[in-house]
Amino acid sequence: MTAQAEPFRRLHVERIITALTNRGLTVAELAERTGLTEATLVACLSQRRTLDAGGVAAIARVLRFEHPALLTAVEQVPPPDFEVLEDEPEVRALTPADCVTRRRVAGDDADEAFLQVLPYTVHDGRCIPATPDPAAPDAEWPADACLAIHRNFVSERDWGARALADTIAHYLRLPEVLHVNLARSVLDFGRLPDLSWSASSTHLDRRAVPWAVARDAVRDPHLAGVLTYYDWIAARWREVLEERLDALDSADERDLAAGRVRGPILLGVHTYDRCDPQGNERPAACLIYRPEPAAGESTLPVDLYDPLFPRQLVDFTADRMLANRLALELERERVPTAHHEVYHLPAGSVEVRTQVWMFFQYLRRVLRRGDDPALRAVGEGYDELWNALLNVNGRDTAALGLRRWLRGTGTGNHDPGLRHAYQQIHRFLGENPDVVRSYQVSPFRPSSLALEIRKDMLVGEVDGRPSYTALRGDQVCRLGAILARGIWKYVLRDLGVKGQGQPRWWIVDEGDDAAPA
Question: What would the pLDDT profile of 335-346 be if each residue is shown by its tens digit?
Fold first, then answer.
């Protein structure tokens, strides 16, 4: 067995044991799965003919520690098939379905334990829309904007991110992986939907439409239509989140009691250059889960999100246990890993937006399940109010105006009952601080973690010259297996302890309708 095969074999053994945890298998069935003889398995299981929890622990000890040589008999997980990397963008007319790919990884044999795990990429797309404005199919890109899009395509792209996300999904047998297909030099879904109005925009204050494109928007109003593509991507992203909320709503009580129910784990895979602009070499990997404002006063910019979003939740967007588990697994395999080494999350990043959206969905469910009839009425109705709170993209001007009016900083002709309902929610959070504290550490809370991998770890050279299209498949597989193993341990070991005794406010009573997004 080669050194490269070791992570795959180890992961495969762990997956077998995981699959046996909640259902008994005969020795013959286990022998067929592992390739070991029945005599060996019987000896391992101390004459147990069906695996129970003790049997699973026994086989785990034997396979992992007492007889490492048995690993050679375990079927090696084959590597995934990688897409060919193209260094030229693809220009074509796009439909909403073309903007995002929800690629199915595993079929009906997807591992149930990881249904809530979703790797995704937002900066490794290569599609350039044929027209800047889908509402005007005959509109053309201005010459300067077109030149800038093509010139910046290579430097803006997260080379190798898509392959790594696919590999993680492959080794965990995840049901799907999500990719944004638009080139980042056209549109950045990881930012707030607006035009960047300065050439000096930094990582933290740039907007979805880069300056190279937005600067011509005054002369050509069709360029503002690029944000329609953003809306198409956002609708697909919301669809993904709603499906994961539905999975929580339909959870079985036995799963709840056993701590097997958990919130979505959203892993954004990114890549960055080997050196920063000052020429300093960056770590091989970096985990980012702390928003930029949290580094200072733990607040968010005015009007970006509603102030009802608790300050405590600004501190991090992912479970720190998950981030530390992944860092530990990477460091064990000699992959230098940092936390927030390069930057923090922008306040308008997809990770932060997702946290805000998820919290208000959770809050509405809490009110629906409460004992106070007035609060239940707020949770079950007032769609206009909840739509305003859930407007995390800022694309709905009516919702933004309502939020300002609710806080007394704007004008408008709105139903006074909305302000009363808003005040009731504010009072409820103030009188029940445990609601936020419990959610903060609950396994039901979603984790949105950004993972940065250095580009030279995933792409290599051709004839001694750097080439972004020369994917280092062996290295991608190695990193994918390490990260998959880290997620496996977090989901099936770490969360098992964390989930005990947690409140179940997140779960909606059977028959309740899902909250509108």
Answer: 999 999 878 888
